[in-house]
Amino acid sequence: MANTFHRIFAIIPAHNRKDVTLNCLEKLHRIRTHFSLEIIVVDDGSTDGTSDAIANGYPQVILLKGDGNLWWSGATNLGVQHALQNGADFILTLNDDVDFNDDFLLNMFTTAMENPSRIICALICHDENRDMVLSAGRYRAGFLGYKTPARYQNQPMAAITETLIDSELESGYAMLIPNAVFENIGLFDYQHFPHHMGDMDFVLRARKKGYRVIVDTRAVLFTTTGDNYLAKFFEKKSFGDSLRALFDIKSTIYLKTRLLFILRYTSPRALTPVSIGFFMLRISMFLFIKAIMPKKIVRKIALKRYG
Predict the structure, then answer these.
(1) What are the tens digits of pLDDT across the range 122-131?
(2) Can you give the residue ranges of every domain in the chain?
(3) CATH topology for the 8-223 domain
(4) Reduced to 3 states, what is the DSSP secondary structure of residue 282?
(5) pTM (global) more than 0.85
(6) Which residues contact 122 (CB under 8 A, 6 or more apart)?
(7) Across the strands, what pairs with 262?
(8) What angle do CA 149, 151, 153 make, to 5 degrees?
């Protein structure tokens, strides 16, 4: 199904990784040859020449700029606002460090047309082993919903039997969002979740308003699991780095973000103090393990709980 009547805007936040961003734009350029797509890059204060390289190499890309304090949610919001003001029917959130098949967006768009008022997400696979699934959607499980396991994680793609999978939680690697969702629930919550968990909060707010979130397993993205991925973070970071990460806005375990997420989503509300106490206990146990356990043991625990 070709997109000839609907305007899709891809929003790509960028900061100081010029080559990665340019590589993403080149891959999107391939899609543009058979798909109508408008691309917005929000360069949030890069000092490595990202903006100049985009302006010179990809003049058709809409380039917006931040001051370095937008982070993921703020940068994405700036792009979304521009897109909506210019007639966007769909917003595609996209990280610049992913790879993808040429038909991934076509598959997502086709699914969106067949499933109106749905948020469509891609299947995420390991870039290091492209047949291995990283996430086919997430769900909340365990005590007070603390665990957010990924469906089919670390299983081969051949194990997936469904074309479309309902998801409770999603990361913003690639989400195709109808404009009506933003009109109904607002933008990503930059005030409370400026970087990590802004995407998950958005999805949960959308679900509360009755929007379903669907993973299209034909739309495949590939990503590396960097040191901010929880299993690798817990495995590789030193005790001191782990302690500092609790107060670093870029960190996966940034304390303020995690506590605000608990305050917003603990149910029933009366259990909020229990939920906070349980979270702090887990953090304390993690730091204790990092401080006294051999690295081999830490790695096993990290892979078992978060890998």
Answers:
(1) 999 998 889 9
(2) 8-223, 230-306
(3) Spore Coat Polysaccharide Biosynthesis Protein SpsA; Chain A (3.90.550)
(4) helix
(5) yes
(6) 100, 104, 108, 173, 174, 215, 216, 219, 220, 221
(7) none
(8) 85
